[in-house]
Known about the structure:
There is one protein chain. The protein is α/β, with parallel strands linked by helices. The protein has seven helices and ten strands. It has helices at about 1-5, 60-65, 75-80, 95-105, 125, 170-180, 185-190; strands at about 5-10, 15-20, 25, 30-35, 55-60, 85-90, 115-120, 130-135, 140-150, 155. A hairpin with a 4-residue loop joins strand 3 and strand 4 (about 30-35). The chain starts with a helix and ends with a helix.
Amino acid sequence: VYGEIYTDERPKDYLLWHKPNINVKLKNDHHEYTFKTNSFGHRAESDDIVHDKSVVFIGDSIIEGAAVENNETLPALFTKHTGIPSVNLGVASSNTVQEFFLLKDKYRVSMNAELVILGFCLNDLYGNDYRRYFDPVSRNMAYYDTVKIEGDSYRFEFSDVPTDKAQDTKWIDIMRSYLKKSEAFMFLYRLARGAG
């Protein structure tokens, strides 16, 4: 089904995006939902990108809205509860580097964003050292290259094998441990899980 949703955007630095104007039913053994995009490829029902003010959401599957209906994505819920228009630039399997380039390419002045929100989860810490693209042959996401950060700059490096996720995880484990001890973080976590 990914072949009906995603498009290979190589050589653009964000590598993958959604096909425009799709309406695809996704289901597994226990759950089903509909994935719809507008003519820009945003996970949205409307093509309206002209706003007096808006909030743009970028991120991976959590922002895109994996396993939920369009009206249940974080950007859609934000708009419902605040009345402020939102733009959903989330795309599954992307990393923060790709999301930055996606924002640069897809943002329009007519959106009048007063705020850009990056959805970033703990599992994203493991995916920021390599980029994936949509492979139209396998119809799935595939490793593309390694992201090398050097000071305040970066470069992309091709290799045959993805970076070992276990490498350089000591600081990730420290961060995870710290967040689990943070009362504010745990409050937000429980609230998001419905136990707040």
